[in-house]
Each structure stands twice: as C-alpha cells, then as structure tokens.
Amino acid sequence: xxxxxxFDRSILRVLQTDGKIGNADLAEKVSLSSSPCWRRxxxxxxxxxxxxxxxxLNPKALGLTAMxxxxxxxxxxxxxxxxxxxxxxxxxxxxxxxxxxxxxxxxVLKIIEADNESLEKxxxxxxxxxxxxxxxxxxxxxxxxxxxxxxxx
Length: 153
Fold this sequence. Notes:
- The chain has helices at 6-17, 23-29, 34-46, 79-91, 116-127; strands spanning 66-74, 95-100, 107-113, 133-140.
- It has 5 helices and 4 strands; from the N terminus they run αααβαββαβ.
C-alpha cells in the first residue's frame, strides 16, 4: 500500500480522466508547479501505482457490438489445466477481462466480438475446444451503463 497524499490523489484523479494531459496543465489542475508535479508523476510511475497509459476505445465505433460474461468451471484444477487456460487467455484479444472467482464456477471472462454469431463461434470453436472446461454459462451484455477503468481514490 502506497502512502498517497492529497496532491498524489488529485494527480491520479486527473490522469484517470485524461491520460494525455501535459505536465503543465496537470500541474495547474492540481495546484502545483511543473517540476514537483512531474516528480510526483514519475514517483507514482516508478512505484507501480501508475502501471501504464492507454486509450479508451469505443467498441461500437470499431464494429464490436457483442459482449458477454462467460462463467466457466474447469474439469480439474491441475497446474497443467490452469496453465492451458492462462496461455489461451493471454493470446486471445477477444478476452478483455479474466478473473478467478469463488462459487460454483472457477473463472469469469469478459469477451467482445463483432456480433453474436462471432461470439458464439469463439466460445464454441475456440474456448470450449480447449478440452478443459467442464461447464460454461454465457450472459450477454444487453446494455452497458458504465464503462471505465478508473479506480476510487
């Protein structure tokens, strides 16, 4: 856990909404001069609080209109099975989130595709053909009310 002061929190809030902001504008928004602001950002980056900068894309503008949460239960929990899933997830751009979860399933995947047919094809012909999934449940996302990567500070 990093000890963040109010300036650090302010910097992080601004960067979460505008990762492309220049240092001078950032410094002005958080009421610091440029050099101390830059040093704080550098410290936040070096310590791993700021992991990376990314652009938030609009999936619909890119023709990606089908999203689903796919809950899966594995056949077993051997290291080989888990590594097979981990390697598959790491190499599939359609899987935009993967979390190990509690309950009757082992993982939940968030998958995005061009349309429902492509989504079904990915699940049936790629994911389930791995031979490691005992069961799966797919929940189509009908409408997304909130889409963010910002974390509470």
